[in-house]
Every structure is written in C-alpha cells, then in structure tokens.
Amino acid sequence: MLPLPVLEKARDQLVCYEDSGMSVMEMSHRSPVYDKIIKAAESNLRTLLNVPENYRILFMQGGASGQFAAVPLNLMTGSGKADYIVSGQFSGKAFKEAKKYGDAVCAASSEAENFARVPTVSAGDFRPDADYVHMCFNNTIYGTKFPYIPDTAGIPLVADMSSCILSEPVDVSRFGVIYAGAQKNMAPAGVTVVIIRDDLIGRESPLTPAVFSYKNMAENDSMYNTPPCYSIYMCGLVAEYLLSIGGLPEMEKINKKKAALLYDYLDSQSYYLAPVAPSSRSMMNVTFVTGDKELDKKFAAEADAAGLKNLKGHRSVGGMRASIYNAMPLEGVETLVGFMDRFAKENRK
Ligand SMILES: *Cc1c(COP(=O)(O)O)cnc(C)c1O
To answer: What is the 3-state secondary structure (H, E, C) of 23-80?
Structure first.
C-alpha cells in the first residue's frame, strides 16, 4: 500500500505539476523543475533516515535483484572475497549472484531450520579479509527480521532492506551500504535506493556496467542516464508524508502496534500456527498456517472475497503472509484478526 494522502497528492498533480504545465511523467529529467523534485526526494530521505554526511544516497534501477550483482561488482575487488549470511530466499539469491564474480562464501545460514529464525552471527564467523559481509535485514517471504545488527569487526556490512526500510529508525552508520527496491515501503516499483559510505565508492571492477557503478552514479547525481523519474517523485512524496507524521520514531510506534495486534492474537490461540521463532519475528511480514493446505487455500480465497487482499504466502513456502507495510492502517489488521477468528470458528479441523 501507499499512504492515501500521498496517492491523493499524486492524483492532484497527475496532469499538471504545480505551474510546470505538464505531468511529472512528461518532464525532462534535466529540467530545473525535475531537478527540484529529485533533490527534495533525496533531502527528505536523508532527514528521515538521519543519513550521516559521509554517505551518499543514489537512485538506481534494476531492483534489489540488480543490487545482488552491483554489490559484488562494486565492492568485491580488494581480496576478492565476500561473506554472505543466508537467512531466506533473497539472501540466497544474492549469494548465488555474488559467486559469479568472486570468492563468495556462506558464513552462516538458517536453512536447516527452514529459515524460521535468523542466524546468530558474531565477528568470528567472517573472514577478516572479506571485502564485505552481506545480509538481508528483513526476510520478506519467511517473515523474519534480524533483532540485532551483526558485528563484523570493521568489515563493511551491506544490507538488503527492501522490505523494512522506513519502517523504524536505523543507525545508518553501522552499515557500509544499505539498498532497497522501493516497491515495498517507499514508492511504486522502478527505483532502487542505495545508501553508501563515501569510502566505498570508487572500488568497482572495470567490468561494472556504467549504470551499476556507484562511482558513476554518485558523480552524476543519479542522472548518468534517465532515472525512473516518476518513482523518485513518489518516493519523495512518501518521505515528505512520513516526516509530516513525526518521522520514523512515530512510524515505528504505529508498526509495533499493528504487528503486536496480530502476533498477540496468534499467540492467544491454537488454530493457526506462526512458524517464526518469536525473537526473529518481522514487523512487516507476518506468516502463519492452519496446518492444512486445503484450509490455507480456503482461507486465502475467502479472505480475498472479504476484501482482505494478498494474504496467500509466497509460492515457495505456502501458507499465509500478511504484509503490513507502513501504509497498512491499524484497522486493516483489526479486520484481519476478526476474519481469522471467524474463519477458525467456522472451519473446525
Ligand atoms: C522484494 C524483495 C527483493 C526483490 O526485489 P526486486 O526489486 O524485485 O529485485 C529483494 N530483497 C528483498 C528483501 C525483497 O523483499
């Protein structure tokens, strides 16, 4: 979901942006009016995430999956080694991609536990000469999240935050690179936000495609080629909206309340099972099953008919997944809990 006030503002500006005489979709990315839009988006994100001055914010393309390749191309160039924490499907894909470019190893994995918790890692788990350590902070499909930031003893930590960015404050200074596809919590699909520490820019392999080079993108203020103008504009509106409601501390309060409502219900009954270990629970993606595949199917279908959309779990894991990103209101979660309770009473196992 996107926040309703953001969609309404975008609607009001759809045909004609301010006094420009045109839609944001029609503007030249090199025009002064668009320059203001992209600069405002960056500055709002910087304020919102409290990004330190020695970090750059880049707007790139290719999604988080593009970053699975961009990260090794840009950073696996010192020792040529990189250590991956595999905590779910996306970090597994990132690891697989990195192996094309150098000596990537899996430093820790929770696959043996079906990714129902995140691995516990410490500095000793990583090769001291690794160029970086890669992790996925919130595992969208499994509904897990790291309750801690791993200690890497100074090795740059690279985090995929696609499904949790802007959901709560984060100490950016603990990371070398944070990247996120915008489409979960920031904007419509099309833009990928990369937050990178200055000293990590300029290390890329000569084979790095220009559009994936952090140095090239930083030197050109994310305008080496045509950026995804409209998604960046929407990203700016979302950031502006979040600032207006009190920033990420306020968003976190709301998100905690929503997640607690759902987890408290799950913990209070025995009809549904929540497979994730409580210490690894995600605040954004809540997974649960009935324990019966046919009932799971019925649940997703009836929920959909009742207006509760997209509750079917990822095709790779089945069951149900309630993605309660920033813009999902508390009432949405209340309605879901009411539906779950009714469904349990009407469909005895
Ligand atoms: C959705 C998601 C991705 C995939 O993003 P694309 O932009 O489709 O490449 C990667 N990582 C995480 C954590 C995600 O939630």
So the answer is: CHHHCCCCCHHHHHHHHHHHHHHHHHHCCCCCEEEEEECCHHHHHHHHHHHHHCCCCC
Residue 67 CA: which ligand 1 atom is closest? Answer: 9
Q: How far is the CA of 319 from the centre of ligand 1 (A)?
A: 20
Question: How much is the average pLDDT of 200-215?
Answer: 98
Least confident of 12-26, 42-56, 59-73, 314-328: 314-328
pLDDT at position 316 over 90? no
pLDDT > 70 fraction of the chain, expressed in percent and rounded: 100
pLDDT tens across 80-90, in order?
999 999 999 99
- The pLDDT value recorded for residue 317 is 86
Runs of H (alpha helix) within 211-279: 214-219, 229-244, 247-267
Tell me the DSSP string of 96-108. Answer: HHHTTTSEEEEEE
Q: Is 162 in the pocket of ligand 1 (CB under 6 A)?
A: yes
pTM: 0.98
Q: Is the CB of 87 under 6 A from ligand 1?
A: no
Task: Estimate to the nearest angstrom the gap between the alpha carbon of 91 and the chain centroid.
Answer: 12
With a 6 Å cutoff on the Cβ, whether 64 touches ligand 1 is yes
Query: Separation of 349 CA from ligand 1 center, angstroms?
Result: 35
Q: Residue 84 has what DSSP assignment?
A: E
Name residue 347's amino acid. Answer: N
2 pLDDT higher than 90? yes
65 lines ligand 1 (CB under 6 A): yes
- CA 163 to ligand 1: nearest atom: 15
User: Please, what are the domains in the chain?
Assistant: 4-244 (3.40.640.10), 248-347 (3.90.1150.10)
Res. 73 pLDDT band, cuts 50 70 90: very high
Q: Does ligand 1 have an atom closer than 6 angstroms to the CB of 323?
A: no
DSSP 314: P
Closest ligand 1 atom to residue 63 Cα is 7
